[in-house]
Amino acid sequence: MNNKRISLSTPTMHGEEMTFVQEAFDKNWIAPLGFNVDNFEEEASSYLSQGLTEKYHTLALSSGTASLHLAYKLAGVKRGDIVLCTDMTFAATVNPISYEGGVQVFIDSETDTWNMSPEALETAFKKYPQAKVVALAHLYGTPSKMDEILFLCKKYGATLVEDAAESFSATYKGRQTGTFGKYNAISFNGNKIITTSGGGMLITPDKKARDKAFFWSTQSRENALWYQHEEIGYNYRMSNVVAGIGRGQLIHLDEHRDKKEKIYQIYKDGFKNLPIKMNPYLDYTKPNFWLSCMTVEDKKVSPMKILEKLNADNIETRPIWKPMHMQPVFKAHDFISVTDKPVTEDIFARGLCLPSDIKMTEDEQLFVIDKIKACF
Ligand SMILES: *Cc1c(COP(=O)(O)O)cnc(C)c1O
Fold first, then answer.
1. Residue 3 has what pLDDT?
2. Angstrom distances, CA of residue 284 to CA of 175, 240, 332
3. Which of 1, 81, 199, 344 is most exposed by smallest CB count within 10 Å?
């Protein structure tokens, strides 16, 4: 096979990115501050605050992981504190909790969205009433059951941190993901729905919190003529060059989302009459369809076999995120499930992420679907 590689998700650039980057070069603003950083924050804030009465504050940082790290610091995670976390996600959701000495307890998913199960979360709150922070990821761009999760956070007095790294532009009842928690993060890594090559953003309704995070992200320099430090700081700010890419990409975010939705729909239609289900979502939410995923409903066909077969045809697929409670690094951590067979283990065993690159042509996608059909 010498067809061109069909990828999971790669960057899609449009041209405006280069204009903003060029401006940074022309003005010699090549630093982790400048007009692109300020404008990118402002433009992202406007986008995220659509339909809200209050405008959310944003802080552009070097990665989504750095944004989550500062979110957990703002939420007050300290040594020995329990944090109730999404189990099926990328490790970056939960790693920064360890940077602060927090202890992750993993919460099983539900089958309607593949995200954190509110039922399992309530069980965890009863077991760990001291838990004061919940770390919630919206998997593959599908919004979680926000009403139920927020109700529980309120009931048990916990702060919600939303990891919207994969779900930028997805909405729950018309409201952007990344605006439900007190401290939230998105990512602009290379494979995300829009990219700056690498980068992230902290999102919060609290201006003081944004200012505190800014202080930490710039080495915790106190306001003095000399270099004065009273707290540990970080070098987490986004570069003005990188922010230029982000400004150009943001213009095309909705267009990326619409293309991703179309890809999902073509898979859904293509898999009719096959023992395959697409990753589900609630009808009152609008996912960003970052990655189209499927589960195999026929026990005789293994997703890893499909992965190998498609790879031989130069088609990239990936396993579903391996649940955190199954990771050797977290093997001493508790895992809360309310079903006999954990939902995350089941999705992991039967699931596969499909090519969702918005530059993929319809013919290429039909080729992928044919190759998958041939596995049954
Ligand atoms: C990509 C991703 C992150 C991390 O973002 P980076 O910008 O790569 O640091 C965090 N959480 C989830 C769920 C992600 O997919």
1. 76
2. 11, 37, 38
3. 1
Q: Is the CB of 65 under 6 A from ligand 1?
A: yes
CATH of the domain at 311: 3.90.1150.10
> pTM of the full predicted structure?
0.97
Q: What are the DSSP E strand ranges found in 87-198?
A: 103-107, 133-137, 159-163, 171-172, 175-176, 183-187
195, 316: one domain: no
Q: Determine, yes or no, domain membership for 8.
A: no
Domain interval for residue 188: 16-250
Q: pLDDT tens-digit profile of 129-141?
A: 999 999 999 999 9
CA distance 133 to 275: 39
Which whole-number Å values give the CA distances from 260 to 36, 263, 289, in the listed order? 27, 5, 5
Q: How far is the CA of 87 from the centre of ligand 1 (A)?
A: 14
- CATH number for 90: 3.40.640.10
Question: Whose alpha carbon is nearest atom 14 of ligand 1?
Answer: 165
Is 93 in a helix, a strand, or coil? helix
Atom of ligand 1 nearest to the CA of 67: 9
Residues 6+ apart with CB under 8 A from 1: 312, 313, 314
Q: How many domains does the chain have?
A: 2
Q: Looking at the structure, do residues 194 and 257 belong to the same domain, yes or no?
A: no
Q: Does residue 150 carry a pLDDT above 90?
A: yes
The answer on 342 and 213 residing in a single domain is no
Beta strand spans in the chain (E): 57-61, 82-86, 103-107, 133-137, 159-163, 171-172, 175-176, 183-187, 200-204, 276-278, 285-286, 293-296, 335-336, 351-353
Pairing of strands 103-107, 82-86: parallel
Residues 137 and 50 in one domain: yes
Yes or no: say if 275 and 350 are a contact pair by the CB < 8 Å rule. Answer: no
Domain assignment of residue 150, yes or no: yes
Domain final residue, candidates 250, 282, 303: 250
- pLDDT of the residue at 2: 55
- Bridge partners of 286, per DSSP, are 171
pLDDT tens-digit map of 248-258: 999 999 999 99
Residue 165, ligand 1, Cβ within 6 A: yes
